[in-house]
Amino acid sequence: MKRILFLLISLAISTKGLTQGAADSLMIADIYKHSLTQALCYEDLRYLCKQIGHRLAGSPSADKAIAWGERTLVELGVDRVFRMPVEVPQWQRGTKEEASYTYRSEGMEHECFPSLTALGGSVGTPKAIEASIVEVKSLEELAVLGRAGIEGKIVFFNKGLDPMLINTGAAYGGAYPIRGKGPSEAARYGAVGCIIRSLTLGDDDYAHTGATQYNDSLARIPAAALSARASAELSRALKLDSALRFRLHLHCEAKPRRTQYNVIAEWKGSESPDQYITIGGHLDSWDIGEGAHDDGAGIVQSIQVMRTLKQLGYRPKCTIRVVLFINEEFGNDGGETYAAICKTEGLRHRAALESDGGGFTPRGFSCELNDTQFGRFTEWKPLLEPYGLHQFRRGGSGVDIRPLQDDVIGLFGLAVDTQRYFDYHHSGNDVFEQVNRRELELGSAAMASLIYLIDQCGFE
Ligand SMILES: [Zn+2]
After folding, report:
1. 87 and 99 share a domain?
2. 327 alpha carbon to ligand 1 midpoint, in Å?
3. In this structure, is residue 296 part of a structural domain?
4. 329 CA to middle of ligand 1, Å?
5. What's the gap in Å between 292 CA and the centre of ligand 1?
6. Domain range for residue 375?
7. Is the distance from CB of 341 to CB of 84 less than 8 angstroms?
8. Cα 425 from Cα 208, distance rounded (Å)
9. For position 387, which CATH number holds?
């Protein structure tokens, strides 16, 4: 009798589990079907890239992107759409950057005009500067040369990303300090300018910009990035003529900070409206290219998550927000402001999910969870693996959502195939044409599936 009772209880438990699992599986299938046949995210991205274009925080084109984001979110028909004021810097590149160098070989003088772009935040050069070049591979090598080897020269950091790292984000992270600190470290030893090899794994003529951070206690010297190919050519020219003269004329300048906005759509939960789930990406981009992968893709995917769930007739248990963050690139003001306001308002976040790795084929998710929560998260593997989502790894989520970390149960990032991401990142080649429609839609479907599971099941 006991044995029969035990079997009946076991059957009831497994049937319940099966029913929930089957319901989840059907819902995820519906999400994918909708995302791959009716999604509008690719057309949203076309509009953002082609009608608005690049949108550096603080710029008039970022104003246009904010207005577009608000209109697009209103069309979703959720409970409320609002703007959250954010103070952002203003920096303008000005007219085209100019650079050239001359070198002598075999008795001939050669003049070159390398592809170059000012680093974000760089000071300009009221008059062109011209100086000889010293090439280094690292901050350590710079320190060894010291003032005797650096003073009065332009420092050329010629270090590529480590090709042996399969995680290209780690390769970028390894070279990033050169862009962030290199100009100030060069100034420490009396350099008059700084150029860096672009932080890319590509071998082409695109120069890649990105923020540099000046050390306030050191002189601010002009700083720019050279394309990978131009860096190789300059290095070759230096071997032929170590006395070559490099001329740099940047027209960029900083202006006072101003107010722009995070744009937020909120869909009230039906069972736990005081628990929040935030989905987002950053609306701003660098001021070259179109910010298609970085991070137009994350913006349109986030909007599509809410559109997909809405059009499938889903009723969320928790309150779901889509946040179009402003100014990730130049100080993370949107993310910091959002987290600070959530804290002030006492918002309880169950989770936040960001897409900011480009609109490439999704592979899974990165997450910041404790052991128990991570165990719960991996129980969803069988539901997600049929869609090619195999990566469930700890560490990393998104720059915009990380400031929420003290007030959130779980932070997640859409993990994509990043092998080509740094070919486009922060360059004139980050344009709409480089985004594949199906890959973009698959990313949105993966995000919607995770949001559905978090909303239904949570982690505890
Ligand atoms: Zn980004």
Report:
1. no
2. 10
3. yes
4. 7
5. 10
6. 31-91+257-457
7. yes
8. 7
9. 3.40.630.10
CA of 358 to the centre of ligand 1 (A): 8
pLDDT tens-digit readout, 16-72: 445 778 999 999 999 999 999 999 999 999 999 999 999 999 999 999 999 999 999
Q: What is the pLDDT of residues 369-418, one digit of tens each?
A: 999 999 999 999 999 999 999 999 999 999 999 999 999 999 999 999 99
Domain boundary among 251, 269, 295: 251
Q: How far, in Å, from the CA of 339 to the mean position of ligand 1?
A: 18
* Cα of 302 from ligand 1 centre, angstroms: 14
pLDDT digits (tens, 9 = 90+) for 218-252: 999 999 999 999 999 999 999 999 999 999 999 99
Query: Measured in angstroms, how far is the CA atom of residue 357 from the centroid of ligand 1?
Result: 7
Å from CA of 39 to ligand 1 middle: 22
Q: How far is the CA of 297 from the centre of ligand 1 (A)?
A: 10
Centre of ligand 1 from the C-alpha of residue 295, in Å: 5
Residues 265 and 406 in one domain: yes
Question: How close is the Cα of 264 to the center of ligand 1, in Å?
Answer: 18
Cis, peptide link before residue 295, omega less than 30° from 0: yes
- Asked whether residue 220 falls in the same domain as residue 340, the answer is no
Ligand 1 centre distance from Cα of residue 345 (Å)? 27
Spatial contact of 219 and 296, defined as CB atoms under 8 Å apart: no
Residue found under tokens 């900011």: 356
Distance 328 CA to ligand 1 centre (A): 7
Q: How far is the CA of 396 from the centre of ligand 1 (A)?
A: 14
Among 228, 251, 274, the domain-final residue is: 251
Specify burial of residue 235 (Cβ count, 10 A radius: 0-12, 13-18, 19+). middle
1 occurs within a structural domain: no
Task: Give the CATH number, domain containing residue 182.
Answer: 3.50.30.30
CA of 285 to the centre of ligand 1 (A): 7
Rounded distance from Cα 426 to ligand 1 centre (Å):
9
Does the global pTM surpass 0.85? yes
